[in-house]
Amino acid sequence: MEEMNLGNGNIGSLVRKFSIPCVISMVVAALYNIVDQIFIGWSSAGAYGNAATNIVYPFTVFALGLALLIGDGAAAGFSIALGKKDSKQANKNVGNGLFLLIVLSIFLCLIGFLFKTSILGLFGGNPEEVECYGYATDYFNIICAGIPFYMIGQGINGSIRADGSPKFAMGCTLAGAITNLIMDPVLIFGLNMSVKGAAIATIMGQILTFIMSVLYLLKAKNFKIEKKSIQLEGRTTLRIVTVGMASLIVQLSIVVIIAVNNNLLTKYGYGTIASTGVAYGAVIPLAVVGIVMKVFGIVVSIVIGISLGGQPIIGFNMGAGNIKRVKETILLITKLVLMVGAISFLIFELAPDAIIFLFGSHNTVEYMEYARLCIRIFLGGILLTCYIKSASIILRSMGNSLKSTILALLRDVIIFVPVSILIATITQNIVSMLWAAVISDIISSIIGFLFVQTEIKKWEKRIG
């Protein structure tokens, strides 16, 4: 049975079994936006289109954050209940999670349409940049309509994975991404729909992922969706939200980073002089930062995928009181994410032009100059970022949602935001502010390491 395997199987084999499909699922989910940006970059919309998708991107990240808040919280609770052999509570976690996903996704969709102008403005949309703002509006309208499919499909994915079907979970997101990849060039270039075509291709993929995920609920291995399991229970709902809060914070922090960056870029971009003696303006920095954040998101997705792959193992063995296997799983996950961080660092520092070229041939001197600086400086602490993101998920898997949430907030909000604003205000330079990310990575990684070690020692004493 799956329970016995989690409690006695080889740690390396289990991590591979759960992490590889999870990594693919997370990366594929991240590719939805990156694929759009690549095709848009090579279309007639060019840098204006890329800047537009960067303005809308935080809204989709927030939607994903809400989906993971419920989905990951329900999955973690399901894994622990499974370890305790409490099938009733396992059903409750998944059922309550599904109900919450439906309600939240519809609510966010309505909020998006009602407050569209304010949302675009919050993330750097400027009506005076007529062409860019027009593309952003077109893209937002379509993406917002697909939010319920996106959130429910992504949220259910965690429970499918925790149910011992990581390959099917991977297949759900992979099918959607392939659909998006195929339809993007057809709609953008074949039907000349530009940014609108990219948005339509995206929600077509999301709908397919949604359908496949919902169908799985009818044949789940270790849980059953029934009327009584869907009925909200205060204690279960609170536990789902509390445990899943770190996942929301991880995504919300990306929203905050982009919102702060976009507004600082818009404010100070015209005053930052490139080496050519020409100011960068607003569109070039917005387009570049959008690209860099998508690349950053791919690396983070790999790390989160590896870490989430260990969640069922950690959760089960925490419930069973086997701290030794928990420590072995944490050590292996940490080694893997540091390896990802090291490889990413070398690519970013040695080959930034190769990354830039993927998103279109914007070969102006100012564009290339800022893009290289952004990749090399902003992503300079990527090794430490990988550890921070993983440590946050590990802490959540061990049941300490408070430390997990604090760590998630620390790197991207508590330190990064004020340091970015401070540097930008003092220097009025959008290049100098990139160093805020490195400063935040150094401080947060030290605190993250101390959090994890303290949590392990606490459980060792408790279990004895």
So what's the overall shape? globular
Structural class: mainly alpha
- Summarize model confidence as the mean pLDDT: 84
N-to-C SSE string, H for helix and E for strand: HHHHHHHHHHHHHHHHHHH
Percent range for helical residues?
over 70%
Helix count, DSSP H or I runs of 4 or more residues? 19
Question: What is the number of strand segments?
Answer: 0
Structure in words:
The protein is mostly helical. Helices cover about 85% and strands about 0% of the residues. The two termini are about 30 Å apart. The relative contact order is 0.14. The model has no long low-confidence stretch (mean pLDDT about 85).
What's the structural blueprint in terms of helices and strands?
Elements lengths: L1 H7 L2 H31 L4 H38 L3 H28 L1 H7 L7 H16 L1 H16 L3 H25 L3 H23 L10 H4 L3 H35 L14 H27 L1 H10 L2 H28 L1 H7 L6 H14 L3 H16 L3 H27 L7 H29 L1
Entry summary:
This protein is an all-alpha fold and 464 residues long.
Characteristics of this structure?
single chain; 464 residues; 0% strand; mainly alpha
